Amino acid sequence: MRMKTLLLFASLFIVPIFTLKAQDVIQLKPEEVQSFIKQKTQKKAVLVNLWATWCGPCIEEFPDIVFLAKKYEKDLEVVFISGDFLDDMDRVKEFLTNQNVKFTTYIKTGSESEFIEAVHSEWSGALPFTFILKKGGEEVAYWENKAEMSKFERYIQQAIQPK
Prior knowledge:
CATH topology: Glutaredoxin
Largest sheet: 6 strands, mixed
CATH class: Alpha Beta
CATH superfamily: Glutaredoxin
Number of domains: 1
Number of strands: 6
Radius of gyration: 18 Å
Strand content: 15-25%
Helix content: 40-55%
CATH architecture: 3-Layer(aba) Sandwich
């Protein structure tokens, strides 16, 4: 009886570990970036954030973006693109899980310079890099470096305002 109770108790903790879904992270090639983003803007406004697990400012602003993704989920799609190397996929997935990101995210592949050029003509490659587009693709804002939540929210509001 004692063994059955112990096994039942243990199963309550072990089973959830094995049923957790791994964070979905899809590889994104330079030649796919623009059509991918254009497709996303057909349904909602889009915030694209390029980040990496080794980037301190990226890690600092990340929780704010996750919060805003939930707050504006009806009108805004957040697209996270990791600048980490594919060898660091486990670290990327662990970070996303710890940040409670429940939606599909992306990781860059291919040449660094080709990817930078494909993402945005004004991006130097510095991280973090964010740009926000209205539904339909009109750009509202873009910036390199960390931003405060108020800046994100100001531009999100502009992006989701009806015409």
